[in-house]
Automatic annotation (TrEMBL):
This is ATP-binding protein. Gene3D superfamilies: P-loop containing nucleotide triphosphate hydrolases. Keywords: ATP-binding, GTP-binding, Hydrolase, Nucleotide-binding. Pfam families: ATP_bind_1. Belongs to the GPN-loop GTPase family. InterPro entries: Gliding_Motility_GTPase, Gpn, P-loop_NTPase. One of its GO terms (molecular function) is hydrolase activity. It comes from the Bacteria.
Amino acid sequence: MVSAPSSDGLIYVPPGVTRSAKIVISGSFGVGKTTFVGSVSQIPPLRMEERITQASAGVDDLARTPRKTTTTVGLDFGRLHLSDALVLYLFGTPGQDRFRPLWAGLTEGALGALVLVDTRNLEASFEILALHEAQGTPYAVAVNLFDGAPYYQLDEIRQALDLDPETPLTTCDAREGSSGVLALITLCEYLSHQHAPAHASVLEPRP
Protein backbone atom coordinates (compact mmCIF):
# COMPACT_ATOMS: atom_id res chain seq x y z
CA MET A 1 0.00 0.00 0.00
CA VAL A 2 1.28 3.45 -0.91
CA SER A 3 -0.17 6.71 0.31
CA ALA A 4 -1.13 9.31 -2.28
CA PRO A 5 0.81 12.58 -2.21
CA SER A 6 -0.51 15.04 0.35
CA SER A 7 -1.37 18.65 -0.32
CA ASP A 8 2.29 19.59 0.20
CA GLY A 9 3.38 17.10 -2.45
CA LEU A 10 5.04 14.71 0.00
CA ILE A 11 4.31 11.00 0.29
CA TYR A 12 3.88 10.09 3.94
CA VAL A 13 3.95 6.68 5.58
CA PRO A 14 0.38 5.30 5.76
CA PRO A 15 -1.18 5.57 9.24
CA GLY A 16 -1.66 1.80 9.44
CA VAL A 17 2.10 1.13 9.43
CA THR A 18 3.14 -0.21 12.85
CA ARG A 19 6.61 -1.60 12.10
CA SER A 20 9.66 -0.33 10.28
CA ALA A 21 13.08 -1.72 9.47
CA LYS A 22 16.32 -0.36 8.09
CA ILE A 23 17.70 -2.58 5.32
CA VAL A 24 21.11 -2.13 3.70
CA ILE A 25 21.56 -2.89 0.00
CA SER A 26 25.25 -3.62 -0.53
CA GLY A 27 27.61 -5.14 -3.04
CA SER A 28 30.73 -4.44 -5.06
CA PHE A 29 31.20 -1.58 -7.53
CA GLY A 30 28.79 -1.71 -10.48
CA VAL A 31 26.71 -4.61 -9.15
CA GLY A 32 23.39 -2.76 -9.50
CA LYS A 33 22.65 -1.32 -6.06
CA THR A 34 21.41 2.06 -7.32
CA THR A 35 19.25 0.38 -9.95
CA PHE A 36 17.83 -2.00 -7.34
CA VAL A 37 16.87 0.72 -4.87
CA GLY A 38 15.32 2.80 -7.65
CA SER A 39 13.25 -0.09 -9.00
CA VAL A 40 11.75 -1.19 -5.67
CA SER A 41 11.32 2.18 -3.96
CA GLN A 42 7.77 3.48 -3.77
CA ILE A 43 8.98 7.05 -3.38
CA PRO A 44 11.37 8.93 -5.68
CA PRO A 45 14.74 7.56 -4.54
CA LEU A 46 17.41 9.79 -3.09
CA ARG A 47 20.64 9.30 -5.03
CA MET A 48 24.04 10.73 -4.17
CA GLU A 49 25.89 10.18 -7.44
CA GLU A 50 28.65 11.89 -9.32
CA ARG A 51 29.83 11.48 -12.88
CA ILE A 52 32.78 9.14 -13.36
CA THR A 53 35.75 11.24 -14.45
CA GLN A 54 39.32 10.62 -15.54
CA ALA A 55 40.27 10.75 -11.87
CA SER A 56 38.63 7.33 -11.49
CA ALA A 57 40.87 5.77 -14.14
CA GLY A 58 42.80 2.90 -12.63
CA VAL A 59 40.73 3.14 -9.43
CA ASP A 60 37.23 2.01 -10.45
CA ASP A 61 37.09 -1.11 -12.61
CA LEU A 62 34.77 -0.35 -15.53
CA ALA A 63 35.72 -3.42 -17.58
CA ARG A 64 32.40 -5.15 -16.88
CA THR A 65 30.30 -1.97 -16.95
CA PRO A 66 31.66 0.13 -19.85
CA ARG A 67 28.42 2.13 -20.10
CA LYS A 68 28.45 3.20 -16.46
CA THR A 69 28.81 6.98 -16.30
CA THR A 70 27.98 7.73 -12.65
CA THR A 71 28.91 6.27 -9.29
CA THR A 72 27.41 6.47 -5.80
CA VAL A 73 29.55 8.61 -3.51
CA GLY A 74 27.24 8.71 -0.49
CA LEU A 75 24.18 6.53 -0.44
CA ASP A 76 21.00 5.58 -2.22
CA PHE A 77 17.79 5.82 -0.20
CA GLY A 78 14.35 4.42 -0.90
CA ARG A 79 11.21 3.31 0.90
CA LEU A 80 9.12 0.20 0.37
CA HIS A 81 5.83 -0.70 2.04
CA LEU A 82 6.26 -4.45 2.16
CA SER A 83 2.81 -4.84 3.73
CA ASP A 84 0.07 -2.64 5.17
CA ALA A 85 1.87 -2.75 8.54
CA LEU A 86 5.56 -2.91 7.57
CA VAL A 87 7.75 -0.32 5.87
CA LEU A 88 11.35 -0.91 4.82
CA TYR A 89 13.84 1.94 4.63
CA LEU A 90 16.46 0.99 2.06
CA PHE A 91 20.04 2.30 2.25
CA GLY A 92 22.27 1.53 -0.71
CA THR A 93 25.98 1.62 0.07
CA PRO A 94 28.79 2.76 -2.25
CA GLY A 95 30.82 -0.11 -3.64
CA GLN A 96 34.32 1.35 -3.91
CA ASP A 97 36.97 0.69 -1.28
CA ARG A 98 37.67 4.39 -0.81
CA PHE A 99 34.15 4.92 0.53
CA ARG A 100 34.38 2.18 3.19
CA PRO A 101 34.52 4.78 6.03
CA LEU A 102 30.84 5.50 5.27
CA TRP A 103 29.85 1.94 6.06
CA ALA A 104 29.79 2.27 9.84
CA GLY A 105 27.16 4.99 9.70
CA LEU A 106 25.10 3.45 6.92
CA THR A 107 24.90 0.02 8.53
CA GLU A 108 24.36 1.21 12.10
CA GLY A 109 20.95 0.10 13.31
CA ALA A 110 20.24 -1.99 10.22
CA LEU A 111 18.05 -5.03 10.75
CA GLY A 112 19.81 -6.82 7.89
CA ALA A 113 21.42 -6.51 4.49
CA LEU A 114 20.79 -7.75 0.98
CA VAL A 115 24.11 -8.32 -0.78
CA LEU A 116 23.97 -8.17 -4.58
CA VAL A 117 26.54 -10.22 -6.47
CA ASP A 118 27.60 -10.52 -10.10
CA THR A 119 28.62 -13.93 -11.48
CA ARG A 120 31.18 -12.19 -13.70
CA ASN A 121 33.10 -11.08 -10.62
CA LEU A 122 32.13 -13.14 -7.59
CA GLU A 123 35.47 -12.57 -5.89
CA ALA A 124 34.63 -8.87 -5.54
CA SER A 125 31.92 -9.86 -3.06
CA PHE A 126 34.25 -11.49 -0.53
CA GLU A 127 35.18 -8.24 1.23
CA ILE A 128 31.54 -7.10 1.35
CA LEU A 129 30.44 -10.33 2.97
CA ALA A 130 33.34 -10.16 5.41
CA LEU A 131 32.40 -6.62 6.43
CA HIS A 132 28.82 -7.63 7.25
CA GLU A 133 30.04 -10.63 9.21
CA ALA A 134 32.50 -8.50 11.14
CA GLN A 135 29.70 -6.05 12.01
CA GLY A 136 27.31 -8.84 12.92
CA THR A 137 24.73 -7.78 10.32
CA PRO A 138 22.55 -10.70 9.14
CA TYR A 139 22.37 -10.85 5.35
CA ALA A 140 20.94 -12.61 2.35
CA VAL A 141 22.64 -12.82 -1.04
CA ALA A 142 20.93 -12.11 -4.36
CA VAL A 143 22.57 -12.85 -7.71
CA ASN A 144 21.82 -9.94 -10.04
CA LEU A 145 20.99 -11.47 -13.43
CA PHE A 146 22.96 -9.31 -15.83
CA ASP A 147 22.39 -9.86 -19.54
CA GLY A 148 25.13 -12.12 -20.91
CA ALA A 149 26.56 -13.01 -17.49
CA PRO A 150 27.59 -16.64 -16.89
CA TYR A 151 24.89 -18.80 -15.36
CA TYR A 152 25.66 -21.09 -12.45
CA GLN A 153 23.49 -23.22 -10.21
CA LEU A 154 22.83 -21.61 -6.84
CA ASP A 155 24.60 -24.48 -5.09
CA GLU A 156 27.72 -23.68 -7.10
CA ILE A 157 27.51 -19.99 -6.19
CA ARG A 158 26.96 -20.86 -2.52
CA GLN A 159 30.10 -22.95 -2.58
CA ALA A 160 32.12 -20.31 -4.45
CA LEU A 161 31.11 -17.63 -1.91
CA ASP A 162 31.58 -20.04 1.02
CA LEU A 163 28.15 -19.13 2.42
CA ASP A 164 26.78 -20.74 5.54
CA PRO A 165 24.02 -23.27 4.80
CA GLU A 166 21.40 -21.07 6.49
CA THR A 167 22.31 -17.90 4.57
CA PRO A 168 19.54 -17.22 2.02
CA LEU A 169 20.68 -17.21 -1.60
CA THR A 170 18.37 -16.16 -4.42
CA THR A 171 18.37 -14.39 -7.79
CA CYS A 172 16.90 -11.11 -8.97
CA ASP A 173 16.90 -8.66 -11.84
CA ALA A 174 17.70 -5.29 -10.26
CA ARG A 175 15.89 -3.55 -13.14
CA GLU A 176 12.54 -5.15 -12.26
CA GLY A 177 10.79 -3.96 -9.13
CA SER A 178 8.80 -7.15 -8.58
CA SER A 179 11.97 -9.23 -8.79
CA GLY A 180 13.69 -7.01 -6.26
CA VAL A 181 10.74 -7.16 -3.89
CA LEU A 182 10.86 -10.97 -3.92
CA ALA A 183 14.54 -10.82 -2.97
CA LEU A 184 13.70 -8.49 -0.07
CA ILE A 185 10.93 -10.84 1.05
CA THR A 186 13.48 -13.66 1.12
CA LEU A 187 15.68 -11.52 3.37
CA CYS A 188 12.81 -10.49 5.65
CA GLU A 189 11.60 -14.08 6.07
CA TYR A 190 15.12 -15.00 7.14
CA LEU A 191 15.32 -12.08 9.55
CA SER A 192 11.96 -12.97 11.08
CA HIS A 193 13.52 -16.23 12.27
CA GLN A 194 16.43 -14.47 13.92
CA HIS A 195 16.02 -14.27 17.68
CA ALA A 196 18.85 -11.92 18.57
CA PRO A 197 17.63 -9.49 21.28
CA ALA A 198 19.24 -6.58 19.42
CA HIS A 199 16.78 -7.06 16.59
CA ALA A 200 13.64 -7.62 18.63
CA SER A 201 12.92 -3.94 19.25
CA VAL A 202 13.05 -3.18 15.53
CA LEU A 203 10.23 -5.61 14.86
CA GLU A 204 8.02 -4.43 17.71
CA PRO A 205 4.98 -2.31 16.79
CA ARG A 206 5.36 1.40 17.28
CA PRO A 207 3.78 2.80 20.46
